[in-house]
Amino acid sequence: MSWAIRTEGLGKSFTLHLQGGTRIPVLEGVELEVAPGECVALAGPSGAGKSTLMRCLYGNYGVGAGRILIRHAGAEIDLVTADARLVREVRRETLGHVSQFLRVIPRVPTLDIVAEPLMARGLDREAARARAAELLARLNLPARLHGLPPATFSGGEQQRVNLARGFAPFYPVLLLDEPTASLDAANRAVVVGLIQAAKAAGTAIIGIFHDTEVRDQVADRLFEVQPMPAAA
Amino acid sequence: MTALGYNFGYLDENTKRMIRRALLKAVAIPGHQVPFGAREMPLPYGWGTGGIAVTASVIGTGDRLKVIDQGADDTTNAVSIRRFFAKVAGVATTESTAEATIIQTRHRIPETRLREGQILVYQVPMPEPLFRLEPRVAETRRMHALADYGLMHVKLYEDIARHGHVAISYNYPVLVGGRYLMSPSPIPAFDNPKMDRMPALQLFGAGREKRIYAVPPYTSVRSLDFEDHPFQPVRADAPCALCGSRESYLDEVLTDDQGGRMFVCSDTDYCNTRQTHREAAE
Amino acid sequence: MSALLEAHGLNLRFGAVPALEDVSIEVHPGEVVAIVGESGSGKTTLLRVLSGMMRPDSGEVRYRDPDGAVHVIHAMGEAALRQLHRTDWGFVHQNPRDGLRMRVSAGGNIGERLMATGARHYGRIRTEATEWLRRVEIDPERIDGMPALFSGGMQQRLQIARTLVTRPRLVFMDEPTGGLDVSVQARLLDLIRALVADLGIAVVIVTHDIAAARLLAHRLLVMRRGQVVEQGLTDRVLDDPQHEYTQLLVASVLAA
């Protein structure tokens, strides 16, 4: 098995119907391939489309051209043409995503937010919560916060909840968007440890790391995302 | 002899034929309400016009008619109806349950067990058992068509929740033949068990609402209930002050202005018969 | 057919006005599908057609029962459809008054579907009703209270309990948070989200509230003038809307 996820001729543009149909090309001909256990850091200037590429890979953005192939449950699946139910299944079992910001669900306690993807896979509530608590503890989120909804948490606390949620299940492919942006040195080290452990376990990781120190510790190589010339 | 100028049984033959057709249909679908064209009767609605129309359609020269109101043969309503049929059909009348072939009743079933060949005709003010729960007539018909009777149980549930028991002492809803929800007319719940597998034919006439329904002999009639709150017919806990019966349904009679009262059988024929037997035995 | 519900080529006109134009939809077990669009877009009509309450001019709605048998909804008899609506299906109305019996106690409201499907043990019905009141965060002490005395949010939660008590596999919801205050809406949405996830219920929900759709739905259908103009994974449709109308819809919402 040579790759866990790869793109072929991936292209993405936005058409802004509300601005008179302005078309903004962002990605074109992206050929990215990541092997199990490999960590690839996306590089390129701000606005080059790194975040857009991440969102395309997760299926959060639609793709205009090309394919996104992922190995899921022993088969190659093209996420671009997969129907919504299959994409959900891939997200549940194979493809994890730690976004920069936590989307808070009202009233749901932190522990349940982290346990949710485990329970979606069929783990029973107690086991899922135990695993969630373990990860939150490792990320230095005090136990007294586990029962609270993270709406009132600081940016760094929310990011750690997000990280715990992303690392709690084992995903064969993991997308990390600025995973250490709001963290202090101690917690950055924890995240580096989590990433290295995931790699060792065979997870293919694609990340955006503005923190070059972290990037150098985890990334095996850089993948340059080229800014597109402005549309005519 | 029938009174001059009237057809036998007061109603014309075409009307009787129409009502008999409705009755046949009603017997064929036990508990199902069949519409019929009620005719003007020489009595106002509410005085038993539905029952009279049914009796008029089934009565023959050889019949012997008994009429009771609240169990009594001697109340105004019972006496008037009995006289009416004596006049317009010239049939024999009786106060004896055992001797009667047709018994028209308002609000009671006689205590004496009815037998095959007898017909019990009920006067019914409101034939629709769901009308207080579902005001839309079209919807109640649909509920009957689909045997969708959860709502009736909701009413029983509400009673138990509020009062600890089902607070329906008369007109207690029944399920006929395991299929149709039926109003037994405003008889006391005490009488409901008598309807079950009764050897006599039971016919129900609602004049104002223009509906006929029936329970053929030996048909199952079950009072709705819950497994843990079974149907319980209620009776005043006293013997009849006149005949001493502990089985019959009792009326409470006030005897003075000082709160004096006594309980006596509501079924006058039953009570009289027992008193006569007791005197004979003494 | 692996879907719970499948509709193909639905068309319906009200006089000259097209209410549905060639609409197709599939709903799979445990899947929450939101139908969004502005008033008059045909979303409520679609819900009524899917649930058998309204007949399309053409097209077919098929449903798979728990035994795997497939039924054409508009060819089913009324009795069978009613039976379906009080067992394997549920319908949550926008106005709780349309879905509740206002003169029947909370417990009686919850118990009705149980009794309609043959429950005849008062004690067990009561226990079940108590449990469901707890699940929808209504004080079980109020089991004998009349819904007319409940707040709007409580009434809506009671309607949900009454609908879910028979463990339906598919529930239709028509703007379930429509008439409620914003703070009450959030609580109700979260409750629906948790119950649906816990019980693995499939839901078709009609809403014009994009935030509600994002919170609840796995998949989104955007309707306009009787047509489905865009559909897909909820976050894809909302974060990268393709159709002009969807872009307008998303742009007009504050931080959905």
TrEMBL record, chain A:
<dbReference type="InterPro" id="IPR027417">
    <property type="entry name" value="P-loop_NTPase"/>
</dbReference>
<feature type="domain" description="ABC transporter">
    <location>
        <begin position="5"/>
        <end position="232"/>
    </location>
</feature>
<keyword id="KW-0067">ATP-binding</keyword>
<keyword id="KW-0547">Nucleotide-binding</keyword>
<dbReference type="InterPro" id="IPR003593">
    <property type="entry name" value="AAA+_ATPase"/>
</dbReference>
<protein>
    <submittedName>
        <fullName>Phosphonate C-P lyase system protein PhnL</fullName>
    </submittedName>
</protein>
<dbReference type="GO" id="GO:0016829">
    <property type="term" value="F:lyase activity"/>
</dbReference>
<dbReference type="InterPro" id="IPR012701">
    <property type="entry name" value="CP_lyase_PhnL"/>
</dbReference>
<dbReference type="InterPro" id="IPR003439">
    <property type="entry name" value="ABC_transporter-like_ATP-bd"/>
</dbReference>
<dbReference type="InterPro" id="IPR017871">
    <property type="entry name" value="ABC_transporter-like_CS"/>
</dbReference>
<dbReference type="Pfam" id="PF00005">
    <property type="entry name" value="ABC_tran"/>
</dbReference>
<keyword id="KW-0456">Lyase</keyword>
<comment type="similarity">
    <text>Belongs to the ABC transporter superfamily.</text>
</comment>
Automatic annotation (TrEMBL), chain B:
<keyword id="KW-0949">S-adenosyl-L-methionine</keyword>
<keyword id="KW-0004">4Fe-4S</keyword>
<keyword id="KW-0456">Lyase</keyword>
<protein>
    <recommendedName>
        <fullName>Alpha-D-ribose 1-methylphosphonate 5-phosphate C-P lyase</fullName>
        <ecNumber>4.7.1.1</ecNumber>
    </recommendedName>
</protein>
<comment type="function">
    <text>Catalyzes the breakage of the C-P bond in alpha-D-ribose 1-methylphosphonate 5-phosphate (PRPn) forming alpha-D-ribose.</text>
</comment>
<dbReference type="Pfam" id="PF06007">
    <property type="entry name" value="PhnJ"/>
</dbReference>
<dbReference type="InterPro" id="IPR010306">
    <property type="entry name" value="PhnJ"/>
</dbReference>
<keyword id="KW-0479">Metal-binding</keyword>
<comment type="similarity">
    <text>Belongs to the PhnJ family.</text>
</comment>
<keyword id="KW-0408">Iron</keyword>
<keyword id="KW-0411">Iron-sulfur</keyword>
TrEMBL record, chain C:
<dbReference type="InterPro" id="IPR017871">
    <property type="entry name" value="ABC_transporter-like_CS"/>
</dbReference>
<keyword id="KW-0456">Lyase</keyword>
<dbReference type="InterPro" id="IPR003439">
    <property type="entry name" value="ABC_transporter-like_ATP-bd"/>
</dbReference>
<feature type="domain" description="ABC transporter">
    <location>
        <begin position="5"/>
        <end position="250"/>
    </location>
</feature>
<dbReference type="InterPro" id="IPR012700">
    <property type="entry name" value="PhnK"/>
</dbReference>
<dbReference type="InterPro" id="IPR003593">
    <property type="entry name" value="AAA+_ATPase"/>
</dbReference>
<keyword id="KW-0067">ATP-binding</keyword>
<dbReference type="Pfam" id="PF00005">
    <property type="entry name" value="ABC_tran"/>
</dbReference>
<dbReference type="InterPro" id="IPR027417">
    <property type="entry name" value="P-loop_NTPase"/>
</dbReference>
<keyword id="KW-0547">Nucleotide-binding</keyword>
<dbReference type="GO" id="GO:0016829">
    <property type="term" value="F:lyase activity"/>
</dbReference>
<protein>
    <submittedName>
        <fullName>Phosphonate C-P lyase system protein PhnK</fullName>
    </submittedName>
</protein>
